[in-house]
Design goal:
This protein has one domain. Helices cover 69% and strands 0% of the residues. It is built from 17 helices and no strands. It is globular.
């Protein structure tokens, strides 16, 4: 019994995260319907056309070498029942939550509460809700899973100098793009982490040593790109399709802005697809945020520079978060300029990776924000107020997840035209 109590005391934060993920996301199990893209795969399974050739045939520009066999096995065992795949989706989200928490403990060392709160906001929000239909969830979550493994084992290598961690990190990096095509950016996320997080403490001193360490990641990335070219680009060219890359700076800038506004808006439930109660709470949260932003503005305007608290806190973390955020939205803007800006505002799949890096950026600013507000308010009352704000944020997304989970439109759509089952369901 004593060991159990000691274990809970030591690992209470990960335990709470796992329990909350289950509480928040279990509603997606109860709408037993696959969605649009899911049926493209099921039809192949039903026709008996699953083969090695099909395995290497891309879905649009996505090469899904892991997803297809997993889905095929699930279909052969359970048929067109979405519950088992969604259980797997939640389990993978739990694993990613724990890995993200571990990575945050490396990034925000000596700040015990920041990894927990940062992971809480990442894992329990509905901003990227669209990924929680089967086709998209497994591929985006897999890309994040292998990215987190890559960065964690890279960190472990520099802390222990054990070559097995470096080898494992390089191997994991090969699988980052194997599903969600945005994973092709994995190499650049790795470089940003190396120079933003590791370089200042652990990494090598010379550019030659940097290149020598990062070279295996380049080699693995090039190897995947060769495979990607032969199976994806050749397939698209043969079918008359193209990547439709648009490098117009004005278009890219516009889409980056729309993507960021979409992330912010969905964080406050400010969307035409929002449940009315969530929207009301979101407006309340937004009002409090605007007031805090105004107080910060006055703080920086009315205080001389030597007396100010720096908001940057850790420039390396800012570099890593900002590079990841801009790269994610920039590449999406270039590759998805053929869709309307509404898609960047509302489609959850486009916010998955950007939101990860946005959470890391916010985690960097919170200590400075706390120091500033403690100069203005009583620290004890400030902590109570911050807790209320966090609970309000989580409540908004708990309501949104449950509302959308029981709607006919499982991802994004005009939910107000429906009469969702959630109206008669206990929120907990």
């Amino acid at each position: 019994m004593t060991r159990i109590i000691d274990f809970i005391k030591k690992y209470w934060q990960p335990i709470v995260l796992v329990l909350l993920v289950i509480i928040f996301w279990n509603p997606i199990l109860f709408n037993n319907k696959f969605f649009y893209d899911d049926w493209d795969f099921i039809k192949v399974f039903e026709s008996g056309s699953f083969s090695v050739k099909y395995l290497f045939t891309p879905h649009n520009e996505h090469l899904m070498l892991i997803f297809k066999p997993v889905f095929f096995i699930s279909y052969r065992i359970f048929g067109a029942n979405i519950v088992p795949p969604m259980v797997l989706a939640i389990l993978l989200h739990i694993v990613n939550t724990l890995l993200f928490y571990l990575l945050c403990t490396y990034i925000f060392k000596d700040k015990k509460w920041i990894p927990f709160v940062t992971t809480l906001i990442f894992s329990l929000n509905s901003v990227y809700y669209e990924v929680l239909h089967w086709f998209t969830v497994f591929n985006t979550a897999l890309a994040l899973f292998f990215l987190l493994l890559t960065l964690i084992f890279m960190q472990r290598y520099f802390e222990s100098k054990k070559i097995k961690y470096a080898v494992t990190s390089v191997i994991a990096s090969f699988f980052i793009p194997m599903g969600f095509s945005l994973g092709i950016l994995g190499l650049f996320f790795i470089i940003a982490y190396y120079y933003g997080i590791l370089k200042k403490t652990f990494a090598f001193k010379t550019l030659k040593d940097d290149v020598r360490f990062l070279a295996p990641y380049f080699i693995v990335w090039i190897l995947f790109m060769v495979i990607y070219y032969f199976f994806v680009y050749a397939h698209l060219a043969g079918s008359g399709s193209s990547f439709a890359i648009n490098l117009n700076p004005q278009i890219i800038g516009q889409y980056i802005l729309m993507g960021f506004l979409g992330t912010v808006g969905k964080s406050f439930a400010l969307s035409i697809f929002s449940y009315p109660l969530a929207l009301l709470l979101g407006i309340l949260l937004l009002i409090n945020t605007i007031i805090l932003a105004y107080l910060l503005f006055l703080y920086f305007i009315l205080n001389p520079r030597p007396d100010r608290v720096s908001m940057l806190n850790d420039r390396g973390v800012v570099f890593f978060g900002a590079v990841g955020l801009l790269l994610s939205y920039g590449v999406l803007a270039a590759a998805r300029s053929f869709v309307s800006t509404d898609a960047l505002l509302n489609w959850g799949r486009y916010h998955y990776f950007p939101y990860i890096f946005l959470c890391i950026l916010m985690g960097n600013f919170w200590p400075s924000l706390a120091k500033i507000l403690e100069k203005l308010f009583d620290p004890k009352r400030l902590r109570i107020f911050a807790s209320i704000i966090l609970i309000l944020f989580l409540l908004i997304h708990l309501i949104t997840i449950r509302y959308k989970a029981f709607s006919i439109i499982r991802t994004e759509g005009n939910l107000r035209r429906e009469t969702p089952k959630i109206a008669c369901i206990n929120p907990l």
